[in-house]
Design a protein that fits this description.
Length: about 450
Amino acid sequence: MARSMRETEKFGTRPSWGPTSAVCSVAMAQGIEAELSGGIGAPPGGPDPEAVRAIVERLSSQFDVITRRMIARYREEIVDYRLAAEEVVDQDVYSVSLGLLGVTVANLASGRRPSPEELEETRAGAARRVHQNVSLESFLHALRLWGQTLWQTVLECADERVEAEREAALHLAGQLLEHLDLQSVVAAQGYLDELQSVWSDREVVRRDLLDALIAGDGDSERVRRLARSLRLRLRDDYIVIIVRGEERPLEESPEQSLPARVALRRITEAVRARLKPTAGSLLVGMRHGEVIALYPFEETAELETIQRACDELACDLEGHEGRVGVSGAHRGLAQLALSCAEAGEAVEIAAQTGVRGRAVAFDDVLIDSIVRSSRHAERVVDSTIAPLLAYDAGRQAELVPTLRAFIRSGFNLAKSAECLSVHPNTVVYRLGRIREISGRDPHSPDDLLLLQLGLKLVDLRA
């Protein structure tokens, strides 16, 4: 069995396959020759052993060429590999691809399944990709390209004029698919196991620090000790940003589903890529399946820049149903508990109202938050919007859309009519019907405020 991951794979660029050159492929070919010399056990109705031998021998003579063809496809079709350092691709990726090729062809020759030791090489290679900025999706894509290239080469090595070789090639295709499936499962598990260890190394203490800060213990000796252990100098003031993905597990843990773990990693990487303070360190961690970031600031003039960065983050995550909530600006570490509550409320409102592609700042949804937490919320809806919704449902009267347009246009009749594509007199008539049905006059400031609060509550419940 290969040495432990911690001993052999930590950030390395070359695994334990040895020299990454044609010399290595020659040695592998010799090993496969030994497999062939032992004879191929053909089950009843199986392929002709001699045909399999012929194809495998042709494959074995061109390992270096095949591997370089694989590498070229990785770079051409996968952005992560195209952007990776040359030594990573030319040494580590080449070596893993060559080693996997040798193992697979040897197994095709003998008709056996890969051993745990052989699969360990794939697991180790996948684990290294975590540290080389190659995503799991990209690694599995590369594995598929590896399989496609090998299968194309098998077809090229089979003499189509010989029926036995055509049948042998089809048989080898079935074996290759089985091997590829095993390699994919092992690679995904190896990648996620290493990712979990990275979270454990980099995030557990940091999560403890976040928990202590959010609890309001920012000035305690324990917090200062945690910060020193991370070589961090805490700033006095932070904005809290909370990001929630499509799936919201109770907590980040190794037992989560594969999609949930990949989604958390994607969000964490996006947060670090977009949120880059000019002074101080961004603190990032996970609580209850959400990513929490503490963004240091000094002057209120920075808040516009922070909001813009959060909007860009929300755009990055829009395709993954990501929601971003931003707290208000409060001075002092003791206020972080309040900031966290505000960011949590903002992201909750973003999720409830379907906001995507932009961050929701708590200051912008303060009224929504007040209304949502009021014990009079039900009464407000019943006395304002509920009768209008019922009337619209029965008569398609468009009273609620008219009220929305009237509010959004700044209470301007002409702009409201333009928005609704109707005559201004139609808007006047509908506002009158709103007054008659709800008992609230849209031209009265107090009644209009209640009508607007009723709309917000309906949106939040939707």
